[in-house]
Amino acid sequence: FRYTRNLVDNGNGKFNLMILCWGEGHGSSIHDHTDSHCFMKILQGNLKETLFEWPEKKGNGEMTKKSERVLRENQCAYINDSIGLHRVENISHTESAVSLHLYSPPFDSCNTFDQRTGHKHKVKMTFYSQFGERTVC
Amino acid sequence: WFPALEVLDVSGTGLAELGAELLALPRLHTLLAKNNRLGGPGSLPKGLGQAPLGRSLRVLNLSGNRFAEVPPALLGLRGLQSLSLGGNRLHGIPPDIQELRSLEFLYLGGNFITSIPPELANLPSLSYLVLCDNKIQSIPPQLAQLHSLRSLSLHNNLLTYLPREILNLVHLEELSLRGNPLVVRFVRDLTYNPPSLQELAGRTIKTRNVPYAPSDLPENLVRYLSLASNCPNPKCGGVYFDSCVRQIKFVDFCGKYRIPLMHYLCSPECSSPCSSASQSSTSQSESDSEDEASVAARRMQKVLLG
Fold first, then answer.
1. B16 and B132 together in one domain
2. Binding of Fe cation: at which residues (chain A) (predicted)?
3. Is residue B29 one of the residues assigned to a domain?
4. Band of pLDDT at residue B166, cut at 50, 70 and 90
């Protein structure tokens, strides 16, 4: 019922290559990338990427939006923690979307952020499937 | 034509109406008609509910069209399991939506819906409800009766609080609330209207268990007494009828998000059962007396607020 992360290749421990499937209206939380490089390519449909500034250390207010854009089919995007944080969402109510993600080095946890307060919370990331097999948790 | 046809996709073909020819297809279970020009009168064929198609249809996708109201013709589809009207021009949801007894998946995101009819809660199998990107200002507490609901999408609406009853949705695993003007500070409704004498008498009868029989009272008072609501404060055995205090209390979810819930209490002196949980996560708590909120919080693993 929410977007799925499907691991395709783990490059001998050097990277994670995965396919994300987004249903209509599905979106991610605002998150960081645990000091890794992150490439994203749209394989089908469109995804909106909203960039946010890191919240102030003592911050307790609404997070600052830096920019937003809609990525079309075949477009690529890159992000890392020095660039900022982002939220990715499929804003279409009629089409699903599919994206290819490359993370290097691989990571299995990150921080999600509450847009209203900037508070962060560490979460473990899970896979819906790995190498074509459904991951049961 | 094609009596064995099971799936038909006429999306993106510019259709302004779906013809009566479809009614005779007895095996068609999936009809996709996204991104067309449907929405005017006669978009759907008459007699849909009674036709062979009406009995076979399980999945209907009408997203990306021009419907300003849920077409009455489709309310007769008693076998329909999945309905999408995302990205149309709906301003409301008809109470007769409850006729779709088999509905499990309902997508209404991206419309102009301002309120939700309580009758939506009468859908016995609804498990996935999407109401994101609308203009909804409040959620009727009756939605808590959707016991089979697993995923509720409410992001990008005009909600300032949620009804406390939302904690009763036992199987709810996902709830998206971002992009709503949820109140962040404790709010108390200052206009508390003192109870009427009738209400005070009713409260006393109920809380003191004063016995009465229908022959003792006028019928309207017997009915009135049956409408007593229990004060949710577990330390208060009180009841209330019409006079209650609206109070917003915050519930911590997994120590992360504070969601404002609306309570109705019998008096300003009553305190809410859902006290604000401590800042730290209590997922490893061994205590026997679980705050009702933390039980719900552990169930709702994917509250998408931030």
1. yes
2. 31, 33, 86
3. yes
4. confident
Mean pLDDT, rounded, for A3-29 = 94
pLDDT band with cut points at 50, 70 and 90 for residue B186 = very low
A48-52, A79-83, B150-154: range with lowest mean pLDDT? B150-154
- The pLDDT of residue B169 is 77
Q: Mark yes or no for CB contact B63/A24 under 8 Å.
A: yes
Inspect the interface and report whether the beta carbons of A94 and B87 lie closer than 8 Å: yes
Q: Decide if B155 touches A, using CB distance below 8 A.
A: yes
What is the C-alpha to C-alpha distance for residues B253 and A119, in angstroms, rounded to an integer?
A: 14
Question: Do residues B28 and B111 share a domain?
Answer: yes
- Residues B39 and B136 placed together within one structural domain of the fold: yes
Q: Which domains are delineated in chain A?
A: 2-132 (2.60.120.10)
B130 occurs within a structural domain = yes
Q: Do B48 and B81 have their domain in common?
A: yes
Domain with residue B76: its CATH number is 3.80.10.10
Q: In which band, very low, low, confident or very high, does the pLDDT at B254 lie, cut at 50, 70 and 90? A: very low
A95 phi-psi bin (left φ>0, alpha ψ -120 to 50, beta other): beta
Q: What is the percentage of chain B residues whose pLDDT exceeds 70?
A: 71
Q: State whether B109 and B251 are in the same domain.
A: no
- Taking contacts as CB-CB distances below 8 angstroms, the residues of chain A near B302 are 2
Chain B closest CA to A115's CA: distance in Å? Answer: 5
Model-wide pTM > 0.80: no
Q: Which of B54, B70, B176 is nearest to B120 (CA)?
A: B70
Residue B209, min C-alpha distance to chain A (Å) = 48
Q: Who's near B216: CB < 8 A, 6+ residues apart?
A: none
Q: Interface pTM (ipTM) of the complex?
A: 0.92
Number of domains in chain B: 2
Contact of B250 with B187, CB cutoff 8 Å: no
pLDDT confidence of residue B270? 59
Give the structural domain span for B130. Answer: 7-188
B194-230 residues labelled b (16+ CB within 10 A) or e (exposed): ebeeebeebbebbeeeeeeeeeeeeeebeebbeebee
Exposed e or buried b per residue across B48-76, where buried means at least 16 C-beta atoms within 10 angstroms of its C-beta: bbebebbebbbbbbbbbbebeebbebbbb
- Taking a C-beta distance cutoff of 8 angstroms, is the pair A46, A90 a contact? yes
In this predicted structure, what is the pLDDT of residue B289? 27
